Every structure is written in structure tokens, then in C-alpha cells.
């Protein structure tokens, strides 16, 4: 099993991961099909992510859930004042997860969670109108977490574990709106850092006040990815003592926060057929004040990019219907508030409020193995927005226009119970 | 189960094609209208300003940022077709004629040995061989150096006439045949829309050469004009009408642009008329003033005390200039100096040197190229004096441009010359506006636009665009031609004029996306 996990990680970490606002909600096909609810649902090893406290309530000795989602996102931009337009490259992000739990005693279950809750891959056409802000970004982070789930009483449990995070970031933009080298090629900087490691933790509880009703709470701490000594490469800078920088690679330091997240929720089993769930998510995005890149040489000014994100909420609703003995159908909806404030709409995370429509099913192939499928459609309203905090000659220059995005998330997974 | 997986995969693939759509999409041509004009075949006719000339050269990046190319990009949103330009071979600029370099590479701003900033030619050898004539037709018919009557001059693209000045090397590169005219090649494309910006060189070549030429007012045969003469106003009006008529034959509309005042360009406004500070003269100042005091006495004796020359010890002073509008007093001056005790040879040299000399004042304009010669020994004059038997030390002292040796005509626009330029510009501009009105064409008053740039500047999203040399944002390093940002401003004015005239809604560009910074790179070391 360990070998398989490793292979899956290697395969998947090589590909990019979607997000705008860079939180990607695709940490379990069963949960995603129900609007990504799960903090109060005892169903499978997906609990390792949504609420580790619930792992101890799983009936089987060993539970494994694994899956991958294809995130197909499109963003279009246009500016009616100038007639300029652009759209992001088609790329398919693949957030994945592997969860396992093992029941040691009746009161104690150990678990493991590997997931990719944060990531982003946006690629605009090189040298497009907003290239002084972003040509492309590729952010990846893998969360690896050993877990303990402990039953205090028959209707109350807690769970927790440290999180090891390993990430990488690649970000490319042009130096400014107009500088080119002697051949007219736009001067560019690309920053790249990989193997950036950090630690965090999560803790959770689950409580069942009456039969068929469960309450859950889960808190995941913030993780600051600190890239130290990454590579910043300047290209296409004119060969002149008057150039602001020189071509070549220098080292840089930067920080990117993966914000803390609090989820509370409730689930209710109406009867043998129907289960309903509601989750409320709060993500503490206000930690993301500014993306600051500190270049090692003193003569290269720091790149300061205010972000000023605000805390945001997600409201999630889901239902499960046992259609056949071997077939569970699921449906859900969620409303996802964007953390991006007006005037801070940077094209690297072109995300406004979205509505998620989800559905899916599980089919029990054998008594021990089930296939989980989910599908989500994210709808963003057309929005006129701008980023107003780009500095040129000490003056703030606006970049804006109309954005329209959508995203499709088909996902497949497997649940094994032994 | 297999089927389920298959359908899921198919569904996923199908979704990749599911793109978000704007309510009114720019890309799908749902936002703008072409009004009464047909932009499908746009042809631009003009001179260097139309070609995208900048930094004293034609090079690919400049051409890419020519105002016609910027316009064509916007016209694409309202049915405009492909826009082909006769691109040069490189980004160095400069031209070759049969392998021999006949034009310098473009200017860049560089740091010289003393640490100060100066425009120099970018290093490299030009690769644009004009005899490698391009095939096909070209929407951008801008030919650097062309005057109004050159557009209808046969043989203007014949390589054999380049060195004699009968032909234009830039047109040689892309003319359809040796005897064609610029206008004929433009009309042959049956433009549905045209722009015409011509006439600047009809005055500018006179102005930028410091008024070396003459006004040809009254001479109706342009074939007899010198290259730096001012065109006769009737010749101008005649060829301009002819050109508009020819372009109108196939076009649904067009736009014409008038001529800027040369005095609004940094080429004429950068060097101050009092460029010599006390520090520039140092300990020579007293000696110079003592020498000039003797000369000033002679001027007073001759009744022209206004020609007195004196350098201030506390403030900047004017340079000594040659003013050909002054009565030549060389002989009289020589005689007076001999009577004053000068030996005959010295008196003769002084007499000739200062017979039409005076000190520059605020009425004069010193051209940009004077900056690099003021205070420098004039080698030609030095050689002349040495040949006359003047000892080298004294010859050197008498040959310092603007200090002892009067600035030559080509570096100074005296008030009389400025008046000739202003009169011709006003006359040509009246003609252009009248013809535009008579034909219902869109009209752009570039003269007022660049006057606004020069007087206070115009605002854009990154600040202010002025005509300050190198840093103002509007003018390239030659001080006459525009930066990409300057050309973008022109393009936006044109778009507004077109929209007003033809009820179209072509969008303007964001001038902040076009460079207004001086070109930099590594230059040819001096």
C-alpha cells in the first residue's frame, strides 16, 4: 500500500493544481458530490480530512479512500475601453487525496491524510495586457498528516494531528508595462522555489446529541510557506547601465500563507435512505496581506504586491440517497465567497464569488470496494474588477476589465473497507 | 461499470470545450461598430512619422509601434483586415546600399566616459539592404524623408537615384517598380480607408538643418528645390488635393493630419539659448571678455553696439552665432581693427569671423545637435586658420564653436527663419483643413495636440507626457520623432476623429502600455 501511495503522489504532484483564491475544494469524491460537506458525516476515510474525530466511528478495521479530480478552469478577460481581450491557457489541474484509518482499539483509531487543499495554476498568454502583474503562476502544496482519533464517550470523539506541508511555487511576470531588450522582447522575471517545507496542525471533534444527528467541528491551522533562497531569473533586460536590473539569476525570499480554516457542520439521517448535511466554512484569508518578494541583492528593490485578502465564508449543502443496495446517489450546492476585495482583483487569482453545483454516486463493486464519482460545476458571475495597486513611477496604475470564469471538476475515487 | 467510466471520461472531455462567455464579447465583435466607414483595407500614406521612424532610424520595434499599425490593431475589432508593413531586417536601424552603410543605427541613451547621459548609436552593423526590394503590397506607405510632392514623384524608388538625392532609400526597399510613385502604390491597393499625414518635411528639413535652405515660395517646380528648402504653398496645395482625390477614389473614408509646429519638438527646445555657464569658460572668461571688449569697441564705432559679445561671470551666457540676416561688416570691421592697432592678418581673420556675428538671445533656437559641438574646437576652422599661417595655439583658441567661432547656420534658427517656418506651417495647415472639410474627411489637429504636450503636457494613467527631451515620454532620442507612447497618443486622436466623423465606435488604446522611456542598450563607444 505504501508503495502505491508513493507512486500516486509522484504521478500527481508533477501536474498542476487549480484554484482561484488558491483554495481548491476537492478533498473527497463523496464529500464533493454533496457540496463538499463532510465535517459531520461518517461515511468513509474521507473523514481524515474533513473531521479526523469521526474516524473512530468507522465500522471497519481498515478504511482507505483515494481519488483524483480533474479541475478544468477557464478565465476570460476583456477591456471594453481598449478592446483588448485574453483568456487563460487550458490546463487540467489534478488535486488528489489518499486517506487511511486503522482501528487500534475500540476507542482509538490512527489515520493518515495526504491531500492538496491549496494550489493554483493560471497561465495567461505571455506578454498579454496584464503581463506586468502575471504571465503565469503555478503553486502546489501537499499536506501530509498522521492522525489520532479518540472516542471519549459513545457519542463524543476528538481527533488531531500535525501537518507536514511541502510545496513549490513558480511565478512569472514582466518587469513592467513597457521595458524591452534591444530586440523588443519584454523584460521578464520568473521566481521559482521548490521543496519548501513547513508545519501546521489540525484538531477536531464530533458529537452526537441524539440518534441520527451528528455535529462536527474541524480547525486546520494556517501554514506559512517560506521560500528562502529561491531562484529569481531576469531575462530580456537591455544590456545597459541604465537598466533597473541585469539579466541572470539571483536568490530571493518570499512567504505565501495557506490560511487557517474552521468548519462546523451538522448531518441528519432522516431514514435508511436519506442523509442531509450542512457545513459552514470560515477561511482566515486576512493573513494574506501582501505578496512580497525580497531579492537578495540590495540594489534590486523588493517587489511589494498588496493583496489585502479578507476572511471568507462558504455555505455548503448536501444530500445522499440510497437508491439501491449498492448505489448511493449524492447532490449538493455551495456558495463560496471570494476573499479578494474590490480593487485587489489580480489576474493571478481571478476569483469572485462562485456557486458550486455538485453531484455524484458511489457504486459498491464488491463488498469491500466502492467506486466514487463526483462532478462539480463552478459558476462565476461576469464581473468588472481591477487591481489598483500596481506602482509605476510612484503612482498607482489600475489594471482592470471584465472577467468571466467557470470551472468543471469531474472526479473519480475508490473506497476500500477491510 | 466500464460504461460509466467511459461516459465520465467523455463528459470530462466535452467540458473542456465549455468556455465561459461574456454577455457582450469583444472577441466575437459584439461591442464595437464601424459606422459609415469600411476598414477592411486600410492604407496609410505619409513620411517618417507614418513609417514609425524613431530614435533617428527605422527599425522593427519602431515600425511595430507606428500609429498606423496601432490603428490597424483597433480596426480589427470593426472589420479591419491584415495590415502589412515593409519591416526592416533588424532592430538596429540603419541602411545599406550595395553593402555600404548609408544610414546610421538608431540612437540609444547611454552613459558616456564622464558618467553623463548622452544619445549614441547602438552598436552593430545594419542588415537592411535597400536593394533587396520586398515583394507584395504594403498597407503602411510611410516613407521617411518624403515631402508632399515626393508622393507623386516618379522614380522616387529607383535605387540608382539614391546617392544623387533623386530617390529615397526607404521607398527603394518596397516600391512595386522603379518608376512607380508612392501614391500609385497606395492607390493600387484600392484602400477602403486611408490616412494621410504629409507635409512636415516640407518645412522640417529647412528647420532641422538650422535654416540652411531657402523658401521656394513662388517657384512652382519642385524638381528645382534643394533638399532643405521650404515648399511653395501652391505646390503643396496642388499635390495635396491630387493625393486626397486619388485615395478617395476607392475609399469610404479617410483621415488627414496636419503639421506640428517644429518649435514644439525637443529638437528645437532642449538646448537653452544661453548655454554657456561661467564654469564652462573657467579661467578663460576674463581673457575672452578682454578680447571681445576690443571687438565691442569696433562694433560701437561701426554703429552696431547690439552685436557686442560679453560672457557673464555670474550667469549663463549666449553663444556667439553667425546671423546671415545681419549686414556683413567684415571689411569695415577689419579696417577699424587695423586702425585700433591690430596687425593686418589678425584684423582680417577677426573681420571675417565676426562680420555677421552676434551673441544668441532668447529669440534664437539652438538645435539639439548643437549640444555636442558647443565649446568644442571646430576642426575645419582650425585647419583653415593653420593653412593661413596662424600658429596652432592661436588657431585653436579662435576655433571654439560658439565661444570664439560663431555657431554655423545649421545649428541656429534665427527669428527670421522661425518666422518663415511658422508662416509655411500655417499655410500648409490651412490647406489640409480646407481639403479635409471639402471632402468630409476626419481631421486631426496634431499641431494643437503636440502644442499641448509641449505646454503643460497631457495626462495618462502613469503620469504626465511632456516634450522634455528623453524623459518627457512623447519624443524619441532624435528629438523630432515620437516614442511608441507618442505614436499611441496620435493613434487615439485619430480614432476619436474617425468616430466623430463616421459614427463608428472604435476603442482607443491604453497609451500606458506603450513605452515612453528612452531606448537603452549598449552603444558604440566614442
UniProtKB/TrEMBL annotation, chain A:
<protein>
    <submittedName>
        <fullName>Long-chain fatty acid transport protein</fullName>
    </submittedName>
</protein>
<keyword id="KW-1134">Transmembrane beta strand</keyword>
<dbReference type="GO" id="GO:0015483">
    <property type="term" value="F:long-chain fatty acid transporting porin activity"/>
</dbReference>
<feature type="signal peptide">
    <location>
        <begin position="1"/>
        <end position="19"/>
    </location>
</feature>
<keyword id="KW-0812">Transmembrane</keyword>
<dbReference type="GO" id="GO:0009279">
    <property type="term" value="C:cell outer membrane"/>
</dbReference>
<dbReference type="Pfam" id="PF03349">
    <property type="entry name" value="Toluene_X"/>
</dbReference>
<keyword id="KW-0472">Membrane</keyword>
<comment type="similarity">
    <text>Belongs to the OmpP1/FadL family.</text>
</comment>
<keyword id="KW-0998">Cell outer membrane</keyword>
<keyword id="KW-0732">Signal</keyword>
<dbReference type="InterPro" id="IPR005017">
    <property type="entry name" value="OMPP1/FadL/TodX"/>
</dbReference>
Automatic annotation (TrEMBL), chain B:
<dbReference type="InterPro" id="IPR036514">
    <property type="entry name" value="SGNH_hydro_sf"/>
</dbReference>
<protein>
    <recommendedName>
        <fullName>GDSL-like Lipase/Acylhydrolase</fullName>
    </recommendedName>
</protein>
<dbReference type="GO" id="GO:0016788">
    <property type="term" value="F:hydrolase activity, acting on ester bonds"/>
</dbReference>
